[in-house]
Amino acid sequence: MMKARLEIPALRENLSQVTAFVGERLEEFSCGMKLQIQLETAVEEIFINIASYAYPENPGNAVVELTCENGTAEITFTDQGVPFDPLSRTDPDTTLPAEARPIGGLGILMVKKMMDKVTYRRENGCNILSIQKKIQ
Amino acid sequence: MIINKRTEGSKLTIHIEGRLDTATSPELSKELETALDGVTELVFDLTLLEYISSSGLRVLLSVQKAMNGKGTMVVKNVSELVMEVFEITGFVDILTIE
Asked: For A41-116, where are the E strands, in sequence order?
């Protein structure tokens, strides 16, 4: 079992550090380009969401925890920002033509479709979003 | 990300190489602000695009909206991974992919 943790200010410019942290640890599982990119996409979308919306006033941190057990990677994002359950939003209508397409909501849709499992809970004043993907 | 543009009359071909993500998408967006003047035929060649996130999709969507009514926009040479993102998000139906 592998376990790693990164605590970092929830700022957009820290995205590359977060994706590098996850990418480097997944490398040892040589899970293949496709899975790596899917996980990286999910990490980017979730971290950018936190960086953009969790702390509208005073900046705060995001904690990224990665565990790998029985061939499944689980990445958990925790922030102490405003309560927000991204899974409670309705998925954007992906059948609409370009003119009618809203500009947001696509990120979390990509996360849901690319991951095996996505869960959200609010606990002790924290948003805890967790994604799971079978990588082996 | 590397952006290469080639103009032939009113046709503009844009090659995007590397990653179109939160960090690089604003650059493409800025590049396109002025580049579309007088363009009626826009081609994105994505042969060398390795990665696209929702911020990259947003740029493509706004360009598609800008081109609707003034000309055509075609997306060419999409890799398997980028195509998967287009499929999940329904972009396969919005974009003209060749």
From this structure: 61-69, 72-79
